[in-house]
Amino acid sequence: MKKLLTAIVLMAAGLSATAQNSAIDKANRALEKSDWKGALAILKAAEENPKTTKLADLYSKIGACNYAIAYTELMKAAQNQPFDTLTYCTAIDQASEYFGKSENEVANPTTKAKADPETPKSNHENMMNLIMYYFYAGDFLNRSGRTDMAAQYFERFIDMPRNPIFSDFERDSVYQAKEAVFAQAAYNATYLRYTEKDWAGVLKHADMALKNPQFAHDIYVMKISAIDQTLGDESAEYEATIKAAFAATGDEKYLNELIRLAMHKTKNADGTQNKEQAVAMADKLIAEYPGNKMTYFMKGTMLLDQPPYDYEGARACFTKALEIDPNYLEANASLGNSYFNELQDRINSGEIVIPSGQGDDVVKAKNKVMREQVYPFYNKCIPYYEKCRELAPDEPAKWIEGLFRSYFEMRMFEKAKDLIVAYGTYAPQFKFEMNVLGQDNLYPELKQMFPEAYQ
After folding, report:
1. What is the rounded (10 degree) CA torsion for 93, 94, 97, 101?
2. Distance of CA 207 to the CA centre of its chain
3. Angle, CA of 417, 363 and 448, to the nearest 5°
4. What residues are paired with 273 via a beta bridge?
5. Between the chain's N and C termini, which has fewer beta carbons within 10 Å?
6. What is the torsion angle, in degrees rounded to the nearest 10, for the CA atoms of residue 135, residue 141, residue 145 and residue 148?
7. Dihedrals φ, ψ of 42, to 5°?
């Protein structure tokens, strides 16, 4: 508060120095008694008098009176006393307007000589002090629930240093010295415009708010929504902002969105994915974001999206993703699925033939095929499914089908039964299948091991 008190003292000194005629003399006497409104009434009457010639000084004095009224309300707020927010806001607007009008008169070649030499200095000092008053106005209005007006005053605060009364050097110096405050005001204005769904307002000062990294998460959410609503998610601005959001926050949802955009761009006219283009796009993202697990996962997924399936290439990608994050659920599940599905493809294509029928020779041949060609796939996929169960026990849809089938085909019935006990309500068909297979004597050991399931 000391700085504010000093400012008003300087202002009062400036007022005394710029007295010009009887009306201003009367106004000064009212000011000495802190009768701001009385002084303002005298000056406004002089403004309406066509005989008043020293308009630069008069306007400056009117601005200073409004400044004093605003200051009085600000002191009440600082001392937790009742104060009038609207009076405060009107006063700072009037002060800014009249200091500006005074400067225009000073710059007018026909009236310049009529201005007191101290008037421009007084205007300049008072306008510099008013800058923060606009931030306080936005805060007061927001606290009182006048959110639309609050946004306007935060925006006026942001724009104040651009007033022609200030030099380029002063403007830049103010923004630099109070960068944190301007970032806060920009955040406040952006948020209030966002709540109003004023998308142009959201975009107006969002970038200034981003100068404070703490605001990055929220500001990018609002900025991306605004761009989506105004320009669409296929615009260059949308993609560029998604990339900037990912770079600033590291939030993988933004990389997911980039991947979605990439997949959309690589669709054929019939809506199917162009595998070659998709893989090329994945390679581009890998080069752009090296060391990110999701880019490798994306490429692996694309290699398995359409036949011919590149199981080895996909597994290399999923493995790379797990090197970056061993607990990456989707990569673990996809690795498990890659072995499980490749086995099914080989069986369906006839590359792996499992003998059927009865007789010792058939059983021996079947066991050999299972041991040498089938079980190796299950042995490879089971650890990944088990890791998924460990990571996401409450998301069985991502792993339970492959894990149960693998346990069952490997005749790991104890573990298969454990899944039934733990997840029977999720997948009751597993218990039914074990029951049927036991009854049909395809796996007689089931009936022997779990007789209660067949009663």
Report:
1. -170
2. 12
3. 30
4. 267
5. C
6. -80
7. -65, -45
What is d(CA 104, CA 336) in angstroms, rounded to the nearest whole number?
A: 76
Q: Are 12 and 33 in contact (CB under 8 A)?
A: no
Give me the phi and psi of 267, to 5 degrees please. -90, 145
- Neighbouring CB atoms inside 10 A of 427's CB total 17
Report the run of H or E that residue 198 belongs to, with start and end.
none
pLDDT at res. 115: 72
> Interior CA angle at 88 toward 36 and 162, to 5°?
105
* Predicted local confidence at residue 360, as pLDDT: 87
One DSSP character per residue, 121-137 reads HHHHHHHHHHHHHHHHH
Rounded Cα–Cα distance for residues 61 and 449 (Å): 100
Q: Which residue in 336, 265, 255 sits closest to 298, CA to CA?
A: 255
Residues 6+ apart with CB under 8 A from 411: 443, 445
53 CB-side CA count, 13 A:
8
pLDDT digits (tens, 9 = 90+) for 340-380: 999 999 999 999 999 988 888 988 999 999 999 999 999 99
What is the total residue count of the chain? 455
